[in-house]
Design goal:
This protein has 411 residues and is of the alpha/beta class. It has helices at residues 31-43, 54-63, 80-90, 105-113, 126-157, 167-179, 196-205, 224-232, 249-252, 268-280, 306-311, 317-323, 340-354, 364-372, 378-392, and strands at 23-27, 47-51, 68-72, 96-100, 118-121, 186-190, 214-218, 257-261, 282-284, 291-293, 297-302, 326-330, 361-362, 397-398. Bound molecules: adenosine-5'-triphosphate and magnesium ion (MG).
Length: 411
Amino acid sequence: MPEVELPLNNSVSGVAESTSNASVLVIDDEAAIRESLELLLGLEGYNVKTAVDGEQGLRVLDQENFDIVLLDLALPGQSGMELLPLIKERQPDLPVIMITAYGTVDNVVEAIRNGAENFVQKPWDNEKLLADIRSAVARRKAEEENLQLKRTLKQRYNFTNIVGKSELMLKVFDLVAQVAPSRSTVLIQGESGTGKELIAKAIHANSPRKDKPFVPINTGAMPSELLESTLFGHVKGAFTSAIATKKGLFEVANGGTLFLDEIATMGLDTQSKILRVLQDKRFMHLGGIHEMQVDVRIIAATNLDLRQAVRDGLFREDLFYRLNVICVDLPPLRARREDIPLLANHFLEYYAKENGFEPRKLSAEAMRALMDYEWPGNVRELENAIERGVVLSSGPLIGSELLPGQRAART
Ligand SMILES: Nc1ncnc2c1ncn2[C@@H]1O[C@H](COP(=O)(O)OP(=O)(O)OP(=O)(O)O)[C@@H](O)[C@H]1O
Ligand SMILES: [Mg+2]
């Protein structure tokens, strides 16, 4: 794997909000239709090209780049329905809006199955058509950007499966890239579901320890004795159920990284033992008499305010300072809404692939609902919503009714 390269600047290109400069190809045999679309779209700032039939349409498509195609269903010779798969074969991501006077339910279903974006009936409502075009072009731009961004993140930081383009997350990525190669202890703070474990793994994967184990343990979920025997191991007979000597996770993680998750609720006794390993890199098995030396990097995470826990006497101040050498603060999703479309597309792709489905898309309303929701469960909640949407949707388009964001949306 390539070494981590520190970024030269912070700009990972943003989405162009405007759809002007976008290019539209209109394929329709009726001159009056071509002319009125040319006028309507030209006035909106689109570059418009026209073709009179499928043959000409495909030829133009091979020569120039377009952002969207408006395709007449009833073309002479090759029909629009026959042409659609040929267009999709050449450019799978190019949105195609079907236009027809003869739209029946069957046509709509078949066209959408074959990858059409939408279906517009003649005579169309100009505002509605323009809105459909705008949202299809914007989505295509977002998808392209998503792909580009993933490539950049992979090249620049050697991150896989992490997406984000907000200022807040780019700062996090920079910090992660900077601290990863060191041995420093890292404290990751963030609400539930913000990606703490994912970032911990990225730090490990970008460190010289990457070929040694990454060992996660949820320290908040265990009673003290069990936690200590899990962390430090024990000798036979150390306590009633210790029927054999057992290695602890500090030994398992030797040379690698130990991820102490949910540390805020760990007992004070265990805290002092962990402090000792951090200071001396030494520890003993429970009930043991020999000290052992280990080389373990600690990454700790908490979704509670650790400073407050210190003030409340629930967390050792000295351990807090030991852990808090470098602090990565993960912002809640509602503070970085521009990451929502990226994350949504990332999960759409992932869950469609995992279930062996054709690619899925979110309807414009569904995307709006996601943007409006508060996401108290952060990225994890978004991921679950998209997975549910992918699994429950009957076709390639996921509507807002399938997403939970809809029920609790702000407006
Ligand atoms: N920036 C991101 N890009 C892609 N996936 C992400 C991102 N952030 C989080 N995820 C995904 O969201 C889910 C939750 O992330 P993770 O488990 O790391 O969060 P957490 O902060 O540890 O949550 P908790 O506090 O509930 O333990 C995971 O499936 C993770 O892969
Ligand atoms: Mg976690």
